[in-house]
Automatic annotation (TrEMBL):
Lineage of producing organism: Bacteria, Bacillati, Bacillota, Bacilli, Bacillales
Name the UniProt record assigns to this protein: SET domain-containing protein
Annotated organism of origin: Paenibacillus harenae
Gene3D superfamilies reported for this sequence: SET domain
Database matches in InterPro entries: SET7_MeTrfase (IPR009207), SET_dom (IPR001214), SET_dom_sf (IPR046341)
Transmembrane spans: none
Ranges where the SET domain occurs: 1-111
Length: 134
């Protein structure tokens, strides 16, 4: 149902994304990404690596790295995909928030809630760099 391809949301960098290979109706779970949870206090170790930008909040006291396609979804404030944390199965379950057509990129809101428009860390970092260079 899904595949990895180069995303047009790359901002000039090589960027992969998750794309639908078939039409996916709203509400259909199309991927269950296995989660590797770890205590939040251990996140400081990931901050020194590229994995810091890929970690998901996994409950109140844990973060998680995801296997499968889980860490490759790109961000949108108008996502067509949403996810639920499945603590019983230790997975993050991705489902179509809207009807998705074959070939469309599957996008999530990195804030966790579909309608949350809070600024994201990488936008804030980009703005700080631009302000510093002026």
């Amino acid at each position: 149902m899904i595949e990895i391809k180069t995303s047009k949301l790359s901002n000039g960098e090589l960027n992969r994304g998750v794309f639908a290979t078939v039409d996916i109706p709203q509400g259909v779970v199309f991927h269950q990404a296995p989660a590797l949870p770890y205590p939040n206090e251990e996140h400081v170790h990931l901050e020194k690596t590229i994995f810091a930008d890929y970690a998901f909040e996994f409950g109140e006291h844990h973060s998680a790295l995801l296997l499968g396609y889980g860490m490759l979804f790109n961000h949108s404030y108008t996502p067509n995909t949403h996810y639920d944390l499945n603590f019983d199965n230790l997975t993050v379950d991705f489902y179509a928030y809207t009807d998705v057509k074959a070939g469309e990129e599957l996008l999530i809101n990195y804030n966790g809630e579909v309608d949350n428009e809070d600024p994201l860390w990488f936008y804030e970092e980009q703005e700080a760099k631009e302000a510093k260079s002026e």
